[in-house]
Amino acid sequence: MINFAVIGTNWITEKFVNATRVEKQLSLRAVYSRTLQSAQLFGDKFSVTTCYDSLALLAQDVNVEAVYIASPNSLHFEQSMQMLKAGKHVICEKPLASNAQQVELLFQTAIENNVILFEAYMTAHLPNFKQIQDNLHKLGPLRKAHIHYCQYSSRYPAYLAGNNPNTFNPSFSNGSIMDIGYYCIAFSVALFGRPLSIQASAFLLDSGVDGCGTAILNYGTFSITIDHSKVSDSQLSNEIQGEQGSLHIEHVAQCEKVTLFQPQQDKNVDVSIKRNDNSMVYEAQFFAQQILDKKIDDVAMQRAKITSAVITEIRALTGVVFPADSI
């Protein structure tokens, strides 16, 4: 059993802790929050009494082997670095850091300290993502893909009212491409690797972050058009097109349903596989296995690095700059 702590006490943290209870490879040992009361309230849900409001004390806890980080984006780099240098394995929510340079430094630090660093990108570990990979060859030569994630943010009305929620605040390394747009980029990179070239445009809010945007990833013989938005909704499915068929994917992050269409047979085939209701189970298992194997998975590491590099380039093309970029 691998004892771990959590940094952050929001809904995603609770979902991750519940995910670890399926295979029971990971055991929650400690909770950190900015206030001790918040940490204790979260700990009470899981009968955990070791709580911290000091990251330094958490880093010194010899009973904690690993840490799950679910703090605001701008804190990922600093907190991951602190835990890695303390000899803790780290699974950090996406995006792993604010920019590509920080991601490279984190993996370098993890390797130097002989610990695991893993970006908590759940999609690539879902059973239906494997179905997408296994059915791509049935499409023939690939030509186009349309990947969408557009969801009107519940925080947008507050922003329009003159408030400054984290969601649209550059100080927190946030905005559309760093949030739901991340899933579109990571999905594309997980399937096809680094694009040959990138085009991008975005609607920038007065705060300086993107409210929505479009990117075109060029892979030579085919291209991927990405649409992401936190200021509008879309019900479109995702589609990968080849000369002999297409794959349709419902929800790019969850891969809820995958349908194969082959014109020659004039029928749609549902190739989906039933998965656990908690979609974070698979990434939790993958993280634990890396710890047991005492080796960072190279595919996961390269995916994290390339995804960050692509998003960093898209931000440069669209003019989104974060205070964290100067660190």
From TrEMBL:
Top-level division of the source organism's lineage: Bacteria
Domain GFO/IDH/MocA-like oxidoreductase: 138-247
Pfam families: GFO_IDH_MocA, GFO_IDH_MocA_C3
SUPFAM superfamilies on file: Glyceraldehyde-3-phosphate dehydrogenase-like, C-terminal domain, NAD(P)-binding Rossmann-fold domains
Gfo/Idh/MocA-like oxidoreductase N-terminal domain mapped to chain residues: 2-120
Record flagged with keyword Signal: yes
Listed InterPro entries: Gfo/Idh/MocA-like_OxRdtase_N (IPR000683), GFO_IDH_MocA-like_dom (IPR055170), NAD(P)-bd_dom_sf (IPR036291)
Alphabetic keyword roster: Signal
Name assigned to this protein: Oxidoreductase
